[in-house]
Amino acid sequence: MIRILIADDDAMVRHAIRTMLEAHSDLHVVGEARDGRDAVALVPRLHPHVVLMDIRMPHLDGLAATRRITATPDGPRVVVLTTFGTSDCIDEALRSGADGFLVKDTPPFELAQSVRDVADGLGVLSPLLSHQVVEIFRRNTSGVGCIDQRPRSEDLADLSDRERALLSLLVQGQSNREIASLLHVSEGTVKSHVTRMLKRFGFDNRVQLAIFASAAGFSAGCGAATGR
Question: Regarding the domain delimited by 2-125, which CATH topology (the fold level of the hierarchy) does it fall under?
Answer without folding.
Answer: Rossmann fold (3.40.50)
